[in-house]
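yo

u said u wanted the structure for the complex thing, so here. seqs first:
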Amino acid sequence: MRDVAIIGVAQTKFGELWDTSFRELIAEAGLGAIKDSGISGDDIGAMYVGNMSSGLFVDQEHIASLISDHMGLNPVPCTRVEAACASGSLALRQGIITVASGYEDIVISAGVEKMTDVVDATPAIATASDQEWEAQQGATFPSLYAMIARRHMYEYGTTREQLAEVSVVNHHNAQYNPYAQFPFEITTEKVLNSSKVADPLTLLDCSPVSDGAAAVVLCPAEDAHKYTDTPIYVKASAQSSDSIALHDRKDMTTLNATKVAAKKAYDMAGVTVKDIDVTEVHDCFSINGLLAVEDLGFTEKGNGGKVIEDGQTRIDGDFPINPSGGLKARGHPLGATGIAQACEISWQLRGDAGKRQVDGAEIGMTHNVGGTGGTATVHILSRDQN
Amino acid sequence: MRDVAIIGVAQTKFGELWDTSFRELIAEAGLGAIKDSGISGDDIGAMYVGNMSSGLFVDQEHIASLISDHMGLNPVPCTRVEAACASGSLALRQGIITVASGYEDIVISAGVEKMTDVVDATPAIATASDQEWEAQQGATFPSLYAMIARRHMYEYGTTREQLAEVSVVNHHNAQYNPYAQFPFEITTEKVLNSSKVADPLTLLDCSPVSDGAAAVVLCPAEDAHKYTDTPIYVKASAQSSDSIALHDRKDMTTLNATKVAAKKAYDMAGVTVKDIDVTEVHDCFSINGLLAVEDLGFTEKGNGGKVIEDGQTRIDGDFPINPSGGLKARGHPLGATGIAQACEISWQLRGDAGKRQVDGAEIGMTHNVGGTGGTATVHILSRDQN
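structre next:
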């Protein structure tokens, strides 16, 4: 099994991109990553694209063919992978596995979602939950995560203000991210007073509806220095499943898929959570950012609100989380998120993150979730090969 | 890169399965393949599922999580892959790559589609074409393939009767396939006189709308005999892309993605088309069965109609095609088809195909197409490891 490196990254601006079509978005990110890596189109052996629901958002399936076509890459094999909001990281994972296998040398892993071409994105997003047991009964994603939040508050005394702090930190970081959908600060008070979406969650606890794309270029680690002076090495790729429906879980306040994937990833990389310098977590709702801090092992279960309130997840904190602004403030074009996380960690480990740089970051982690935790992935990236 | 073997296969009956839900279909196939392979659930390292459009057909994305959940396999990682009607073979390919890489040892590759829960499947199927340049202009899949057929008739003198013969042969074979949607004979006259769908194609030139699922179990070739006395070895897995829209092709009568994938597969397996004893091809419309015979290299371009008319694709012909009944008569639940093809070739190479057995088949091939050829895959399987 060959070691794998990231040699190029790119993402589009995330936001309501009325003037950019689905195919333009992915081409912009893909060609950006190709340029960043120094490869030429002829070097590319395969491409993977994470996307949750192009069928419902833009009436287009078979996007793999569309993308290789629109990027001028035919006959390069292109494959779409999907696991709701974790689709992007699955594209990363399939790219890593394909390079590791020796089937291909240079692989592009990308993600894209164009969500603003429908009148209401909520029904499409709801297809990430159990259609028969959740969506058809009226449950939407905000309501499912609101139930998790409510239970976490009940079990552990987590406060409304602690949840809000997840969004406050994200917005603070996003002001330094040129790709962020919402690059401005907000206050706790503003979160608490924004419109109720599903009690206790308000509008500013929720990630937005976004358009966007991101891409990375992978190659065998041993070849990486042919292309770039700053390769980022993949130390672990782990994925896990859990029940798709919330009511089938033993414990609503833990995403078991995150815990299982994190343990696998730490073991594979030969590190512990204490070795991780910077992390991008899946905070589609503020409560999920809080769960991630606990389930990835940064603190014990129930203590997530406290460590966030204490500033430990800030860029200068003990374990910086989401310097990019996270799903809340960078934006969350579903299939693109997992790849955008890998872009951000790559920039951080290269030392290219500007005003949102985590000082001296050497090992980084990404955490991507599908649905309410039916799928989770954890990737560990490193500046050093060994 | 490790060699890979298929150690278990299963498929559901294909047809209008009103009494079986999406999740029941995939569980039946998946558990059937597990049983056929002799593994236990604990052995499974990962699962891939090919599916074209569960979002549009059953309002459910994130089916990977649903499936691992409903099969009782959590926390096994499960990933959906999609390239329209080629989705199934991409699940096979990702499974092969994953086992080859060493990331996992035992992998299930499955495919599923539940198409009959919508009033009209045509708009969902049309999302496999270029939405902006084809579907929104009114082109449906029958009309796109009808244009290909018309051009092939014009260029090479292919006759209406030769096209019909593809369906006649498929239906003949399907009568011996217990899983086939249409297990009965039809005549050339019946094909010609069935309702016009898109001139020159009639109803009996077209594969049906189907429900169904299929699954195979993969493991490293070196371990295969631990589980079964009749492993089937994967000699090649190849995939290629072409323009998604028909008007961008240099030649409408050739699927270049098929040609590129076939060449790669023959090279990888170290065989020529003459070594292939039995083949399952993607004949979503009769014309596509004819193109496949040419583009896979069984005969030169333009001669497909002639060799089919001469009976060379029949079970006792020179190069038997679709002993299963093909997409036309076995049925075509989109995401399941590529896996059902691998099941059929496995049965053929094991010598387990009953009255549709191709005598002495040792090397088999599957050919799966997405859209009008935007994606194509070719897999070569063998009874012998070397």
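The CA atoms of residues 299 and 384 of chain A lie 26 Å apart. The domain at 4-117+209-227 of chain A is CATH 3.40.47.10 (Peroxisomal Thiolase; Chain A, domain 1).
cya
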